[in-house]
Amino acid sequence: MISFNKITIEDKEWINELLKESDYSGCHQNFGNLFAWSSIYNTYVARVNDFLVVKETVEDKDVFFYPAGKGNIKLVIEEMIKYSEDNGNQCMITGLSPENLNELNELFPEVFTFEEFRDGFDYVYLAEKMATL
Q1: Stated pTM of the model
Q2: DSSP characters for 24-92?
């Protein structure tokens, strides 16, 4: 079973190392935001086979971010599924890029359902547009 720990400042080095391996660009995929929002989202982290696994609690449900790191990601996601099942939950993964979604669907065909969560989208605005609101 995955052994999660509350995120701390001491986790910064190994988390950044694994995030760099994946080259993800979502706002939730950097140590600063994970740490800063950890008290709001009850953020826990684990290192599983050279992957960062992040678990947060949203509406009393465990929600994972897509694993970041290198190696066999399928084994890591299988561990996430097992963790969820052992805790009486469905495995929910949020913050997927189109590439993550394709990979997940290839590795686990017809296992996951995919839904957009608009409230969780990253928004980018042109400075000029913001200045003229």
Answers
A1: 0.83
A2: --STTSSHHHHHHTHHHHT-EEEEETTEEEEEEEETTEEEEEPPEESS-HHHHHHHHHHHHHHTT----
